[in-house]
Specification:
alpha/beta, Aspartate Aminotransferase, domain 1, 7-stranded mixed beta sheet, 11 helices, 13 strands
């Protein structure tokens, strides 16, 4: 028997209270084309457990992993080496405490790790304070835009033409629900500084990315100056956390808020998630920062301890004063991040970044030597955009047939940008010289 706790009268009363005609009203923002009108076509009603396992295994067998040959896909998610010790550390019993560490007396392992995570993120970004993580980089970006509007009491956000399209989409979605105007500049490979020309006294923040989605590294200091002159904020975005070991960090460029993706450190690609969003800001903005924040304190005996602090979320009955409805953080991914960063240390992190950059330079040199290939990104860390003589989708398909995953076509992320022949390729410490040679040889065959 199905458990139906609500009667039709109960449902009608609740709908009447909130002013909805039916439950269908809740889905008005979901396009009709995306809604199911019946059972999923081709999906059987039921199968036995063994049959389902076999079917799922067959589907999984069709996947191609990042380890199956030369791999140059990036654009927001990167293949890096994760030491086996990271997996061992995150499974230790000290971290297998409460899922949500509201009771610090039984969650010190989790809380101390999150405190160390925050310290690492603040140091990497050169910002004053960081939270205990967000769901991923895109939601961190969206939350930063809303936070900037709270701080400035303005309702306009400007996005650069180099902001990752997924980050832009998440930001548009969250801002639209709160009546915030979002202005997006035209896609540009090297256009982050254009943000400085789009700030006025109604602007809450400008959001720039370095390295941007095309891989271009830009000093955003002039943008920060222009924003601050109008009492607006600069939100600095990154999708490749390893870049912070080599490039100028957001805090040194005058950013008020720094957000990005931490997947590159301690977390494998895992077909797109879960990942870990990084969020940091200046000290004066800390009380408006969303998410969870862990602080250091002392207990009744004067011993060092850790607790949740500045908890201004809806879970803590803040209601209209809540800074976010983020109910938790990416705890396990943050733990893996912290374990990996601790193993690397500051010197190792810088060496890892240097190795990534040098490998990317080798890749760019090899590809540019292919007739008809033109490198478009003027300054890059470990990924760059390049143009081929023929359609990028066809090029990548032919590379795949030759065992090379050559990158991400821009037309997939920005279909209206007129960049049908442009590919974004990434190289990391996992990229070998043989991989680069195979890519160049295959590309020479197909273009």
């Amino acid at each position: 028997m199905r458990y139906l706790p609500l009667t039709p009268e109960d449902r009608a009363a609740m709908l009447n209270t909130i002013g909805a005609a039916s439950v269908d009203d809740f889905y008005q923002d979901v396009p009709i084309s995306a809604r199911l009108s019946g059972l999923i076509e081709g999906l059987p009603n039921h199968q036995g457990e063994l049959a389902v396992e076999r079917h799922m295994a067959a589907l999984a067998g069709k996947n191609r992993t990042a380890s199956d040959g030369p791999f140059f896909v990036g654009a927001g998610a990167y293949k890096h080496h994760v030491p086996a010790s990271v997996d061992m550390i995150i499974q230790r019993s000290e971290f297998l405490t409460t899922y949500t560490p509201y009771q610090p007396e039984i969650a010190q392992g989790t809380l101390q790790t999150l405190f160390e995570f925050q310290t690492q993120v603040a140091a990497m970004t050169a910002m004053d304070v960081a939270n205990a993580s967000m769901y991923d980089g895109s939601t961190a970006c969206a939350e930063a835009a809303v936070m900037a509007c709270r701080v400035t009491r303005r309702k306009k956000v400007v996005l650069s033409g180099g902001l990752h399209p997924h980050y832009a989409a998440a930001t548009r979605l969250l801002c639209e629900a709160q009546g915030i105007e979002v202005i997006e500049l035209e896609p540009a490979i090297d256009g982050e500084l254009e943000l400085a020309n789009h700030v006025d006294d109604a602007t809450a923040c400008v959001i720039g990315q370095s390295p941007n989605v095309f891989g271009t590294v830009t000093d955003l200091s002039p943008v920060a100056d222009a924003a601050h002159a109008q009492k607006a904020l600069l939100v600095s975005v990154f999708t490749e956390a390893v870049s912070l070991g080599l490039v100028t960090p957001p805090g040194e460029m005058g950013a008020d808020i720094a957000v990005g993706e931490g997947q590159s450190i301690g977390n494998p690609l895992t077909f797109g998630g879960p990942y870990v969003g990084l969020f940091a800001c200046t000290q004066k903005l800390v009380r408006q920062m969303p998410g969870r924040l862990c602080g250091e304190t002392v207990d009744a005996d004067g011993e060092r301890g850790f607790v949740l602090t500045l908890s201004t979320r809806e879970q803590h009955i803040r209601r209209d004063k809540a800074t976010s409805n983020i109910c938790t953080n990416s705890g396990l991914c943050a733990l893996a991040f912290t374990a990996h960063m601790t193993l690397l240390g500051g010197k190792g992190f810088a060496q890892l970044a240097q190795l990534n950059h040098e490998t990317a330079c080798d890749l760019a040199d090899a590809l540019e030597a292919v007739p008809g290939v033109n490198i478009l990104t003027p300054r890059f860390f470990n990924e760059f955009a390049f143009e081929t003589p023929v359609d990028a989708e066809a090029v990548l398909a032919m590379l795949d047939e030759r065992g090379v995953l050559g990158g991400v076509r821009v037309s997939r992320m920005l279909p209206d940008a007129g960049m049908g022949k442009v590919i974004i390729a990434a190289a990391t410490e996992c990229t070998t010289q043989d991989d680069i040679a195979a890519y160049a040889a295959a590309l020479k065959e197909v273009v």
